[in-house]
Every structure is written in C-alpha cells, then in structure tokens.
Amino acid sequence: MSIRKFLRFCAHAQLLPVLESGEETLVGGQAVMEGVMMRAPHSYCVAVRKENGEIVTETAPLAKVSDKYPAFKYPFLRGLGTLGQAMTLGFKALQFSFNAAFDDGKAPEGKPKEIPQWAMILNLAISLLGFLFLYKFAPLYLATKLGSVVPALHSRIAVNFADGFIRLGLFLLVMFLISRMKDIHRVFQYHGAEHKVVFNFESGQPVNVQNAQQFVTWHPRCGTSFLIVVMLVSLCLYPLLPFDSFAAKLAARVVLLPVIVGVSYEVIRYAAKHRKGMLAMITTPGLWLQRITTQPPTDEQAAVAIQALEGAMALEESQGGELVIA
Q1: pTM for the whole thing?
Q2: pLDDT tens across 196-206, in order?
Q3: How far apart are CA 272 and CA 150, in angstroms?
C-alpha cells in the first residue's frame, strides 16, 4: 500500500464524525471512499465505484444498538450508543470502500487486496491521538499561555472560554484546509450525494438521480452539525469546572466527553424534530459549515448513493423491518 493511499485513508478516518449522520433514523448514511454507505433501521449497504467504473456493494443486517442494549433507549445514554455504533459501522464501511476503490483487478481471483491489519491499528492510533491533541490538549495549552500574558484572560472562566473559542477556530481551520485537497473534495461530493438522496427519499418522490439533484446538500442530521453542537455545549460547560491546574482541566475534558456527547445528541434530536423552535437555532452554524463539508455531486456520484439506499432498503424489506423513525 502506497504512502499516499494510507494518508488518504487516515484523513478520511479523521472525518468520520463529520461525514456520518450519527442518529437512529428511518434512513441515514455516510460518505466513504468513492462511494456512500446508507443504512435503514435494521440493515445497511455500502456502494463504491471502482476505478473501472463498476459499482460494488456490501449489504448486511444491522441490529439497532438500543435493541441489543436496552439501557441505550434512555435519554443521554442513547446518544452514546448510537454514536458508538455509527463510528464502528463507519470505520467498517470505510475499510470496505478502501479495498474496493483501490482494487486494480490484479490480485489473484478470490483474494482481493485488503488494507493490512497493521495499517488499521496504526490508523486508529493516529486518529485517537490526533483528536486528543488537536481538540483537547492544544486549545487548552494555547488558552493557558494566552491567559498568562493577557491579564483580562487570566481568570479560570476566561481561560476556559478562550479554550472553547480556540477549539472551534481550529476545527473550522482544519475543515477549510482539508477541503482544498482534491481527494477530500471528492469525499465531500459523495457526502452531498448522500444528503440529496436522503432528502429525495424523505420527500416521498421517486428516488432517482434527476429528483435527488433538485435538493440541497446540507442536512440537519449531519455529523458536521453534531460536532458544532458538541463544541458549543463544551463552550458552556467547561467554564463551570472547578479546576485550576492544567492537568486537572485536561483530564476533565476527556472524562466529560461522554456527558457532552449525550447532551449534544439530545439537542440535535430535538432540533431535527422541531426545526422552527428556538433550540433549533443552535444547529444553524452546522448547516452553514456544511457548505464546506458537502459539495454538489455529479450524476454518477448520486447514482452510487441511490444504489446504496436501494440495497439497504431491499434488505430491510426482506427482513420485515418496520420503517419508523427511531
């Protein structure tokens, strides 16, 4: 596996929270390498266009995490269960898409190339360490240094607020910079294709390329909106923490991450069902940011998303799945 392909895989793995919907819904999905993963309540399908133009798919049943573990049916806990399953499924879909997208047909029959196990482990380690450094350690470190030289930012509350704004700024900067990469631009096009097809399905119109292309690419259930809400909730919570030392503040940010995720999920869930309510305004910045993380897809990319949706829905129907909003 070339270094370029591995770096592309790493970059895409870092984007998993941005590209997936992160909610148990009637239909939802995620952009993958040269394709789209779509899921229904009890099934999913990944569709990927290979280098030769062929579309390959992987379809499998998907048990809802709240059915397997009843505790995740309750508010705040359901966000952790749903996001955990979404990230696990997203990584699995990403792995399939990587193997399919870069299959040049030269491997022995019945033995397609697969990403090495060491690469998967290394990618997970890089993703986790990168997240902790970029969005936990670096903002707090910079805010602490800033507080030591600017008297107005010396208090505990001021440092924590500065930490939150720096974190948000870093996130926006990273999103802008990676959006300039050619490979990531294609991923964002598939992200747009996924949203358009989901909108097409939700509208009740026949799902086809022509109808799907009439819809916008930004969707309120997108992972981009979820991450923005996570950062805004963090911005409100961290100033309340009664810690002064750097180590205690950093540890609290890691330990409280599940709490913030649970609260943020409930906000997104409520906002998606009450789009004209006051609380829904908190998701508006996420919709703005999706102008970066989603791009208008080509008809061929929309067709891939439709095939993924059709595969998931076909399996859902064969299982007798009840199509209801979670």
Answers
A1: 0.83
A2: 999 999 898 99
A3: 40
> Any idea of the CA torsion for 189, 193, 195, 197, to the nearest 10 degrees?
180
State yes or no: pLDDT of 324 exceeds 50.
no
**Cα–Cα distances in angstroms (integers) from residue 281 to residues 63, 79, 195, 267, in the given order:** 32, 20, 20, 10
Can you spell out the DSSP letters for 241-306?
A: ----SHHHHHHHHHHTHHHHHHHHHHHHHHHHH-TTSSGGGGGHHHHHHHHHH--PPPHHHHHHHH
Tokens matching residue 204: 């009740």
Strands, E assignment, the chain? 28-32, 35-40, 43-49, 55-61
The per-residue DSSP string of 190-210 comes to HHHHHHHHHHHHHHTS---HH
For the record, the structure tokens of 132 come out as 């902790």
What CA–CA distances, in Å, run from 85 to 24, 79, 97, 158, 316? Answer: 10, 10, 18, 36, 18
Closest CA to 295 of 225, 216, 223: 216
The tokens describing 324, both together, are 């209801």
Spatial separation of the C-alpha atoms in residues 305 and 190, rounded to whole Å:
8
Higher per-residue pLDDT: 25 or 212: 212
Give the strand order in the sheet containing 35-40: 28-32, 35-40, 43-49, 55-61
Measured between alpha carbons, how far is 203 from 196 in angstroms, rounded to an integer? 11
pLDDT of 21 reads 57
Q: What is the mean pLDDT of the chain?
A: 83
Cα(321)–Cα(315) distance, rounded to whole angstroms? Answer: 9
C-alpha span between 116 and 5 (Å, rounded): 12
User: What number of CA atoms fall less than 13 Å from residue 104's CA on the CB side?
Assistant: 2
Residue 325 has a pLDDT of 35
Q: Over the stretch 282-292, which tens digit does the pLDDT of each residue have?
A: 777 877 888 88
